[in-house]
Amino acid sequence: MQKTIPYAATVVLLRESPGSGTEVFLMKRHGKSGFMGGVHVFPGGKLDDADRENAWADRTDGADFAADCRRCRGADPETLRALAVASIRETLEEAGVLIGTPVPPDIAAIQQKLNAKELEFAAWAASAGVKLGVSKLVLFDHWITPEIEQKRFDTWFFAARVPEGQQPTSVSRETTEGVWMRPGEAVERYRKGEITLAPPTCTTLIRLAKASSPDDALRRLSARPIATMLPRLKNENGQMYLALPGHPSYGEHEGELDPEGPACVKMVNGKWFPDMAE
Q1: Counting beta carbons within 10 angstroms of the beta carbon of residue 50, is it exposed (0 to 12), middle (13 to 18) or buried (19 or more)?
Q2: Per-residue exposure over 118-149, b if at least 16 CB sit within 10 Å of its own CB, e if not
Q3: 55-83: pLDDT as tens digits
């Protein structure tokens, strides 16, 4: 019997690059982590039951989740709100950034207590009068871990500017470091073997490398139809690749197709690279 795939959410934090352009915040997961150990990722994690509480309707600012539902298939406004809550919670726990108001002066201590399980996010937000800035998030992508993997997640991707005056850190139990990089730089470092990226992360970085600024990146992402990307492992004449919806070998697919690609992710010199125009 097919197990239910747990929901997860991730946030691409953006800022102006010194001089011009865009930078993204990436964190390296612990090498001994049971999921994507040693890989550079965006802040994020699994949806908790508490993220679905009805009380969040009054503790989040205005966001048109019905409009987001029209951009994607298989989502409902309540689930998207819960995923937005999860993405903000995880960004605070993992990166020490609160997308919401008011920002506590002791945010680093709050982050540490959340990671140590000394605080529960929903209870803390209620007692501190925090309103989550879900309207600051742009929903732009949806990836499901391939069936060949034992540990799978149904992950929804958001993007947001890092709030003014806040500086991400990485002191969580699951990551070892955090760094700002230009998207193109991160892809090139992956190509050289200096860092490791998962296919969804690499695809996002290639897409963001085309943006001239964080605002341009958010405009581009908000205009995209949201395709459900469930990779399927294929092997043709010794070439390993992950077929995505729209590829001739993929098979039946319901829902949107990504007009920008990729249609597949190829194994090149031991690394997975999306087959799309850079």
Answers
A1: middle
A2: ebebbebbeeeebebbbebbbbbbbbbbeeee
A3: 999 999 978 888 888 888 778 999 999 99
Is 167's pLDDT higher than 80? yes
| Tokens coding 26 | 């990436």
| Angle (nearest 5°) at CA 62 between 45 and 93 | 25
Residue type, 88: I
The structure's pTM equals 0.92
List CB contacts of 241: < 8 A, sequence separation 6 or more. Answer: 233, 234, 235, 264, 265, 266, 267, 275
More confident residue, 251 or 220: 220
Whether 234 shows a pLDDT value over 80: the answer reads: yes
- Interhelix angle for 121-128 vs 107-115, to 10°? 150
Mean pLDDT of 140-150: 91
* 11-55 per-position pLDDT tens digit: 999 999 988 899 999 999 865 555 555 799 999 999 999 999 999
CA distance 210 to 273: 17
CB atoms within 10 A of CB 278: 11
Distance from C-alpha of 133 to C-alpha of 180, rounded to nearest angstrom = 22
pLDDT of 257 above 90:
no
What lies within 8 Å, CB to CB, of 269 at 6+ separation is none
| Cα end-to-end distance, the chain, whole Å | 40
Write the CATH number of the domain with boundaries 7-225. Answer: 3.90.79.10
